[in-house]
């Protein structure tokens, strides 16, 4: 197994704040295959972490493990230094590529999510107004969610997640099927959430988006972390074969010279 390349400088290391979320030797197996393999990552408080990698690299699985949606086969997810539990999950929110919305109005979607969290009365009304304003959906408050455009649905899903006041927001390819204007609107919403103190973890295939939104970057290949570091540094100067191939728009093959030489120190 090749070692993950860490694309950081000593100055970056000196500034590292306490991680909000950590994985320790995290593994996930299914169908006799190791799909997430010995992953050790730190998600830093208040940062925007981008997870990248080719199709099938394990990005969505890692996100689901971080959010406690699936149980690891090995290792641990730590939330503020302790094993992730219900209270930790309560402080998290996740938005998928295809938003899961109620077949009711924009307002009802927001109202239902807040009620489920025990937020009622004036506070619920206040949060709904803010959420609709931020997502620019106020004029569509009574429109059924199912007739909204893809971009509007995604903004509603993000606004609904944020209305509940999470400390961290996981986003799995939130703009994958959107047009440029809708991508911009979703990115604005994410940037606004980050400015309000929400830690962001974003899976994306979009290099431009990774540059625009990423502080830190985790690059996965075959369920393993092969490179981490400041997003701009990794994208400008990838050190691992898979990340280099990916940023150049090439397929990476296991037989590529970089990988072979790294495999000399393989643990497996
Ligand atoms: N529950 C499961 N059982 C068996 N295999 C699974 C399961 N979930 C995911 N996989 C496999 O694990 C691998 C990683 O899946 P994952 O969805 O995390 O990839 P990804 O990096 O998000 O890919 P993409 O960019 O295509 O969305 C894939 O080969 C997938 O088929």
TrEMBL record:
<dbReference type="InterPro" id="IPR027417">
    <property type="entry name" value="P-loop_NTPase"/>
</dbReference>
<dbReference type="InterPro" id="IPR003439">
    <property type="entry name" value="ABC_transporter-like_ATP-bd"/>
</dbReference>
<dbReference type="InterPro" id="IPR003593">
    <property type="entry name" value="AAA+_ATPase"/>
</dbReference>
<keyword id="KW-0813">Transport</keyword>
<dbReference type="GO" id="GO:0016887">
    <property type="term" value="F:ATP hydrolysis activity"/>
</dbReference>
<protein>
    <submittedName>
        <fullName>ATP-binding cassette domain-containing protein</fullName>
    </submittedName>
</protein>
<dbReference type="InterPro" id="IPR017871">
    <property type="entry name" value="ABC_transporter-like_CS"/>
</dbReference>
<keyword id="KW-0067">ATP-binding</keyword>
<dbReference type="InterPro" id="IPR050093">
    <property type="entry name" value="ABC_SmlMolc_Importer"/>
</dbReference>
<dbReference type="Pfam" id="PF00005">
    <property type="entry name" value="ABC_tran"/>
</dbReference>
<keyword id="KW-0547">Nucleotide-binding</keyword>
<dbReference type="GO" id="GO:0005524">
    <property type="term" value="F:ATP binding"/>
</dbReference>
<feature type="domain" description="ABC transporter">
    <location>
        <begin position="21"/>
        <end position="247"/>
    </location>
</feature>
